[in-house]
Structure formats: C-alpha cells, structure tokens
Amino acid sequence: MVDLKGQYEKIKDDINAAIFKVIENTAFIQGPDVKILEERLQGYLGSKRVVTCANGTDALQIALMALDLKAGDEVIVPSFTYVATAEVIGLLGLVPVMVDVDPNTFNITPDKVAAAITDKTKAIVPVHIFGQCVDMEPIMDLVVGTDIKIIEDTAQAIGSLYTFSNGTKKSAGTMGDIGCTSFFPSKNLGCYGDGGALYTDDQELGATLKMIANHGQRQKYFHEVLGVNSRLDTLQAAVLNVKLTHLDRYSEARNKAASFYDAQLKEIEGLVTPVRAKNSTHVFHQYTLRVTNGRRDELQQYLKKSNIPTMVYYPVPLFEQQAFQGIGRCSGNQDVTKMLCQQVLSLPMHTELDNATLEYIVKHIKSFFNG
User: Fold this and answer.
1) Where are the beta strands (DSSP E) in 154-263?
2) Distance between CA atoms of 139 and 371, rounded to whole angstroms?
3) How far, rounded to the nearest angstrom, does the alpha carbon of residue 262 sit from its chain's CA centroid?
4) Which of 246, 253, 261, 298 is spaced 20 to 30 Å from 351 by Cα?
5) Phi and psi dihedrals of 246, rounded to 5?
6) Is 307 exposed, middle or buried (0-12, 13-18, 19+ CB in 10 A)?
7) Helix, strand, coil: what percent of the chain each, to 5?
8) Considering only CA atoms, which of 47, 280, 40, 68 is closest in space to residue 173?
C-alpha cells in the first residue's frame, strides 16, 4: 500500500545526514530540529503557532484538554472515521456524538452537524478524510456567537487547501480553533516512528497546548495543570524537516496516480471513483473506491491473489464498535456510513507508484469486472 523504502532511497543522503547530526549532537529530546520543524510548519501551513507532540492521537487529546471541557460535554464527530478521533473523547469522560457523512466525499456535512447540536455541545471535530477538506465555511458559521469550538483532525490531509466563498484559501487544520495531525510513517508527511502536531492562531491557546504536552508546566518543575508527556523526538523532527521540503512534490505524485486510476476506472459499472470537492484540493492520502455491486470483498480477494494489496478504511462504523457502547450516541440515521463500510476499498496510493505498477493494478481490476 505504501512504498516507504522507495521513497527513502530517493532522499537517503539527506535523511542519513540529518539523523547522524542529531546522534552526534546527542540532543535527543527537544533538540533544535524540533523548534525548526515547528517554525517551518508554521510557514508552510500559514499557522501562527505549531506545537509538536508524540503522535496524532495525543494531539487530539491535548486539544480537548486545552478547551477545559467537563465530563458529559458533547463532542460531534463523524461516524465514518478512524477510532482515534472518538477514542480520546471517551477517555476524557466526554460524549462522542456521531453523525453521518456525505456519500461522495465521505466527510461530515453542515446539515448533519447542525442537527446534532444541543445545549451540551462544546466541540466539533471535522475529519478531513482521505485527503480533502470538509466543507468548513458553513460549519464555522454554525458556531458563530456560541462557545462551541472546532478541532480539525487533519491526520490525512496535510497540504490540502480549502477555498472560502470570498476566494480566501486556508490549509487543512488552520480554519478551526485547533488543528491536529499525525506523522505516522504512512501519512503524506510521515516520520520514521510516531509523531504529531497541533496548530492554532491563538497564541494563548498555543501556550496552553504546549504546557499540557509538557506535563502541565511552562517552567520546569512548576506544574500549573495536569498534563501529559507527549514530545516529538528530535530524530523524528530531523526526518520531517527533510521530508517537508518534498511534501508538495509528494502531493503532485499522488494526484498523478489518482488521475491515472480515474481515467482507467471511471467507466466501470459497479465502481465509483473518488469525488473531488469543488472547494478543496485533494492530497490523496488514500484512493478509495466504492464497489456498489456487492462484490467488494470478492474483488479484494481477487486482487490479493495477484499480489495487489488493498485495504478497507473502515469496515465497522464507530457506533457499532464495542468500545463506544454506552458512552456515545448517534445523531440521526447512519445510512451512508453503513453503506460505505460495505462498499469502500482503497487501492495502493503512495509517492513511488510508476506507470507499470498502476497499469498492472488497473488491468486486474478490469479483468475482475469484465471476466
């Protein structure tokens, strides 16, 4: 699904030099590369403050902790997403309120969010799934004049741009109160272990995020609040500093592969290729088909026999997961999420896909449907 070895080989000298520099300096925790990365991400994203942390799940938890929410407060999330988005809500004693998603973009929609808001709603977590932005402007309009905060989960969409009705463009993760991302190795900007970051334009909130991520202290040994120990290793920051310079090129390579898939697969009956939203660019963390003829699992097994990996993101809706029984609730029907869990299939998508590999994959998909 992801060729990290091939990607490494192309930037090997720079990566090795960056890693060995950290080892020689022995500044393994909070070394200079961490601050450099935070500053470079601020410039790349157009965010006023970036705080790195240990992983994307920690980023979500730290964001919620910074908002000083109380047990029983409700947080709106999509029902079609990875568990981490809602997991941290439950861990903090909050109530994940799960809403259905759009069948084309797989993202939450303003109408579903509006219907889920109650007097207990304190936050909304839009997930920019598979690489393109949620329709953020109308969701942001919903919270004007309220105390409801927006935490963007942009683990899959770093580099994606959203265009507002007035023509303004903003990066995924920089539109709400806080943005959260993951640097898991398979992400579009991935390190060689775990890593994450938070973004905000509110400097006071940024200081709070930094404090919580560092044991609740601004000054060493003086702990203002209960925090967590969540730091990005200097070695991982060094890797990310190298890879950040290639991120736009990586996005172009993913889009080129996606366009090839589109052209070859869009006319096949029983397949729906990914839909691109008009107001968002797509960075294709995943290239996710919908197999609408009930043969998704059969197609997956057929491709596996030809050594073509595929993945189902996600096979079980959040509201059906045992972990959320009794602690969350659904708002409205969940028909689209149920359908997607039966239909979605993600094809190999990464920066090193060449024409021969793409042609091999497409040939076998066509063979399945034409056979």
Assistant:
1) 161-163, 169-171, 178-182, 196-200, 217-219, 222-223
2) 45
3) 22
4) 298
5) -105, 0
6) exposed
7) 40, 20, 40
8) 47
Report cis status (omega within 30 of 0) of the bond before 360.
no
Q: What tokens does 303 get?
A: 């491709």
Rounded to two decimals, what is the model's pTM?
0.97
In this prediction, what percent of the chain has a pLDDT beyond 90?
99
Q: How many CA atoms lie less than 13 Å away from 130 in the CB half-sphere?
A: 27
| Lookup: tokens for 57 | 């799940």
CA distances from 362 to 117, 304, 352, 366 (A): 43, 13, 16, 6
Residues 6+ apart with CB under 8 A from 250: 188, 189, 243, 351
Question: Side chain identity at 219, as an amino acid letter?
Answer: Q
CATH superfamily of 248-370: Aspartate Aminotransferase, domain 1 (3.90.1150.10)
SS3 of residue 225 by DSSP: coil
The pLDDT tens digits of the residues spanning 12-51 come to 999 999 999 999 999 999 999 999 999 999 999 999 999 9
pLDDT of residue 225: 96
* pLDDT band with cut points at 50, 70 and 90 for residue 371: confident
Locus of tokens 């059969």: 298
* CATH number of the structural domain 4-244: 3.40.640.10
| DSSP labels, 42-111 | HHHHT-SEEEEES-HHHHHHHHHHHTT--TT-EEEEESSS-HHHHHHHHHTT-EEEEE-B-TTT-SB-HH
Ranges of each domain in the chain: 4-244, 248-370
- Rounded Cα distance between 279 and 136, Å, is 10
- CA–centroid distance for 284 within its chain: 11
Q: Is 117 exposed, middle or buried (0-12, 13-18, 19+ CB in 10 A)?
A: middle
Question: By the 8 A CB rule, do 198 and 178 touch?
Answer: yes
The pLDDT of 325-343, averaged and rounded, is: 96
Dihedrals phi, psi of 185, to nearest 5 degrees = -50, -35
Domain 248-370 in the same topology as domain 4-244: no
